[in-house]
TrEMBL record:
Pfam families: Pribosyltran. InterPro entries: HGPRT, PRTase_dom. It comes from the Bacteria. This is Hypoxanthine-guanine phosphoribosyltransferase. It comes from Geopseudomonas aromaticivorans.
Amino acid sequence: MSVELAHIRQVMAEADCLYTADQLDAAIARLAGEINRDLAERNPLVFCVMNGGLIFAGKLLALLDFPLELSYLHATRYRGETSGGELFWKAKPEMSLIDRDVLIVDDIFDEGHTLAAIVDYCKHAGARAVHTAVLIDKEHDRKARPEMDANYVGLPCVDRYIFGYGMDYKGYWRNAPGIYAVKGM
Ligand SMILES: O=P(O)(O)OC[C@H]1O[C@H](OP(=O)(O)OP(=O)(O)O)[C@H](O)[C@@H]1O
Ligand SMILES: Nc1nc2[nH]cnc2c(=O)[nH]1
């Protein structure tokens, strides 16, 4: 995919900031408190969902105060685009999930296809329990499984295309220090 850097810069310049880094870090600290309370005795296996979960997982993990193991998985259905397609597994979990408590850490619960597929995979792989933590829950009525919620949710967001704190716009701005909505989207 070839993207004009001038366009990428313009998107950042024109974006609406929905959450500052301070607001996001406060939400992450609250979630860490909830997870410390709930999972401290569960010896969980924590999976960061690449790429978007990277910043959230990094900040969250540093606030968890109990023994855990960390790994990653990569399931993607946006692949640099701004609307999702079929789910594609780039990296499946390599560790045994049998009888483990698993904590999935991802940036956004949008339509929920990605999280639902990951939860199903972990259950079929023998996990004892699958817990899910997302930084952002996008509010709309297009959820893949309307009855499904993430167990730990940082903040809600409006139904717009967002980037920053791990989330990309056409592969860029995962490094943006807050969460921003693309102008007009
Ligand atoms: O709830 P959904 O509508 O399924 O979308 C949520 C998923 O989409 C994004 O991943 P993406 O496919 O963009 O991969 P990436 O993290 O590598 O950018 C995000 O990181 C979530 O994993
Ligand atoms: N960057 C980004 N990725 C997503 N994946 C699902 N929804 C979104 C979104 O709004 N922004």
